[in-house]
Automatic annotation (TrEMBL):
InterPro entries (alphabetical): Sbt_1
Transmembrane segments: 7-24, 30-51, 60-77, 89-111, 123-144, 156-175, 196-215, 221-239, 251-273, 285-307, 314-336
Record-given protein name: Unannotated protein
One Pfam match: Sbt_1
Organism: freshwater metagenome
UniProt key word Transmembrane: yes
UniProt entry keywords in alphabetical sequence: Membrane, Transmembrane, Transmembrane helix
Length: 346
């Protein structure tokens, strides 16, 4: 028993030392990758909000860019999926679905221990953290591309799978423990017929049917313009984040600690699951980012219907103003370091 424990401790020590070594040894490359135009545009948006300059996009432009990003990710993911074998995809999909249920359950009970929030608000937050952030996912892809790190093209399928179960689990926990009867049917309809799910799933189907040959004609639009359009979107999100930064004070120390610490835990779980199911270090990084991110588009719409008494302002402050910037600036390179370290010992 002692020898096994010693081996386990040695492996853990080796893993953590590997993570820190890779973080520090690759710091110039990581810094260069983080100082990409999309991330700098996000920081510019925060600065503009601090200076009380409104750089937010008009509503119509914001909606158009949202449609573009969702469809582009779906189509490119579908094309890559058409070139993948079922054996490559099934295990990561199963792991993603399982984590999509376990993450909100863990969030719900951890929040009970470190905050004074009631069951309804804990369930609402669990729904947000059980779902995913499209923009964090997209920023991760740009980060990996700029660093020249390969990843599996079917990760958009993982994104789609992770979008729904967490929201349902969070609402279920709130309704079972909070004494509030959830509006299940309209909430489920809101999730399944939402723009994000429809465009991602529809884009996947289009890309899968068209294949690489069909994608060639739209590559200049969905490929070459992608990073530029993401830059505008992150400028808008930076302005939104900066506008609500003052609300962070009202979140309390427990929720602030959760919004930073919980993504690290779930990100590590996602990286481990990706590695164990055969994903490359780049793919495992994306899996970690998906598990670490929190929704601020799909989840609020569903929670607003299912849990009308939930404090959505608190959910958005936590997911958009704390977790999103953390993942964008520090989380993504951290999950890459985890994936690289795990790849050396498996």
């Amino acid at each position: 028993m002692r020898s096994r424990a010693g081996v386990g401790l040695a492996l853990l020590a080796n893993l953590f030392s590997g993570i820190f070594f890779r973080m520090f040894s690759a710091s110039p490359a990581i810094l260069g990758s983080l100082l990409t135009i999309p991330v700098l545009a996000f920081l510019l948006g925060i600065l503009a909000a601090a200076l009380r300059t409104d750089l937010r996009l008009p509503g119509a432009a914001y909606q158009a860019i949202s449609v573009y990003l969702l469809l582009a990710i779906g189509v490119k993911g579908g094309v890559s999926l058409s070139e993948s074998s079922p054996q490559e995809v099934i295990a990561p999909l199963g792991a993603a679905f399982t984590l999509g249920i376990l993450i909100p359950v863990a969030a719900f009970w951890i929040l009970r221990g470190i905050t004074r929030l009631g069951p309804v608000d804990r369930g609402a937050l669990a729904a947000h953290y059980g779902s995913t952030s499209l923009v964090t996912f997209t920023a991760c892809l740009v980060f990996l591309d700029s660093a020249g790190i390969a990843y599996e093209g079917f990760m958009a399928t993982i994104l789609t799978v992770l979008e729904v179960p967490g929201i349902i689990a969070g609402v279920f926990l709130a309704s079972r423990t909070g004494g509030q009867r959830a509006s299940w049917r309209p909430a489920l309809a809101e999730v399944l017929t939402s723009k994000s799910i429809l465009l991602l799933a529809g884009g996947l189907a289009i890309g899968l049917l068209a294949g690489p040959a069909g994608y060639v004609s739209v590559q200049p639009f969905f490929g070459a313009l992608f990073t530029g359009v993401l830059t505008l979107f992150l400028l808008h999100l930076g302005a939104m984040t900066g506008k609500h930064l003052r609300d962070v004070r009202s979140a309390g120390p427990g929720l602030i600690a959760f919004a930073i610490g919980f993504p690290v835990i779930t990100g590590a779980a996602g990286v481990a699951a990706g590695t164990l199911t055969g994903l490359s270090p780049g793919g495992s990084t994306v899996m970690g980012v998906l598990c670490a991110s929190a929704s601020y588009i799909a989840a609020p719409a569903a929670v607003r219907i299912a849990l009308p008494d939930a404090n959505l302002g608190l959910c958005l402050t936590s997911s958009l103003c704390i977790t999103f910037p953390f993942n964008l600036i520090l989380g993504i390179p951290l999950y890459l370091a985890m994936a690289s370290a795990l790849a050396t010992i498996t």
